[in-house]
Amino acid sequence: MESSFLQTKEWAQFQESLGRRTFFIYGEPGRIAQESAWSALLIRHDLPLGKNYLYCPRGPIIGELRIKKIEEFLSRAARIAKEEGSIFLRWDVPFVKNSQFEIRNSQFLTYPIKSVQPQHTIVIDLAKPEDEILAEMHEKTRYNVRLAERRGVLVKQVPAESGIKTFWELLKQTAERDDFSSHHSAHYEKLAKTFSESQNETLSHVRMYVAEYMDMPLAAALIMFHDGTATYLHGASSNKNRDVMAPHLLHWYIMRDAKGEGCDTYDLWGIDDRNPHWAGITRFKRGFGGNEFSYANSYDIVFNRTWYGMYRVAKKFL
Questions:
Q1: Do 267 and 123 touch, CB atoms closer than 8 A?
Q2: pTM (two decimals)
Q3: What is the pLDDT of residue 97?
Q4: What is d(CA 3, CA 225) in angstroms, rounded to the nearest whole number?
């Protein structure tokens, strides 16, 4: 079965640390190892007026895509929704676009939505030799990696929890420079604590990498390791010394480290050609080569049409 860190018990614990209730549902209660089974994590998000909705990020974990399993998943999610008084299920489906997945003859109203998680991404094959990975990068990116090395940029791994302060200071600069809103620092602190490598020797853990120049932190990245994939979850960079190209060497170091740890994939976690705020980061990520792929559409599965209609109207004015 393909799995995602977004469907792990650690991700559930992280969500609970943010004050959200979580639920696991199963195709066969207590048995998720068999090919015929599936499992899914649902996260409750509260709304005004005492209402809420459920969210399933890149689940269910499923061995073989069959419509019957999808119908069973939606029915069991509806059961939780009834118990919790949830208006709808927000569902980022785990299936790749053109995988023959579609919702057909559902008993529920389905509404296509923009994905909460990145719908389009780039993955780099770490099973290839290092010189081949470098050769597949854009010429300018490869040049910048070497430039950063020549300028004396140094990359190191630091404990995620102790590195959050450095990451947060860099992230504030990045958010102001690129005009986007970040989570509060406590969000990243709780993420690092939940997925701390020192405490968690199971399937998933987070590592922090920092690129320094003349002992000054210039770039940092939080990387999620899960099931043979390293994912570029969050990144930040300084406004200073941008000419030494620290972020380029940072990612090359991460790829090499992940490869050495047995990962076969580096997921750059999100590109978007349609959003002007993503133009720079999309161009930066494409410079590292790799293969682009997209997930299928996401959906709101509506359980209460009246309240969902009111929710949609309210969203237009918020």
A1: yes
A2: 0.93
A3: 86
A4: 12
